[in-house]
Amino acid sequence: MKLTKKIGNNLRRARKAKAYLQKELAAKLLLSPQQYGDLENGITELNYHQIVVLCEMLDITPNELFDIK
What percent of the chain has pLDDT over 70? Predict the structure, then answer.
């Protein structure tokens, strides 16, 4: 599985666990809902700012997001 797809799946799982809608996280990241969806679908890669914001909002660590054990 492509790494960006795996990260996207982890992101989707964490978002759903916190009951956020895609459009809520998209707004926090200053992205359109389509652009945010592309992150979860592994089409685009996260940048540093997005990683920090998402980890804070979803209460996860970068290691959890990137599935590093």
Answer: 99
Indicate the burial class of 54 (C-beta count within 10 angstroms; 0-12, 13-18, 19 or more). buried
Cβ burial, residue 59 (10 Å; 0-12/13-18/19+): exposed
Q: What CATH number matches the domain at 3-65, 1.10.150.20, 3.20.20.370, 1.10.260.40, 3.40.50.2300? A: 1.10.260.40
Q: Where are the beta strands (DSSP E) in 6-62?
A: none
How far is the C-alpha of 34 from the C-alpha of 18, rounded, in Å? 20
pTM summary value:
0.91
Residues sharing a CB contact under 8 Å with residue 28, sequence separation 6 or more, in sequence order: 53, 57
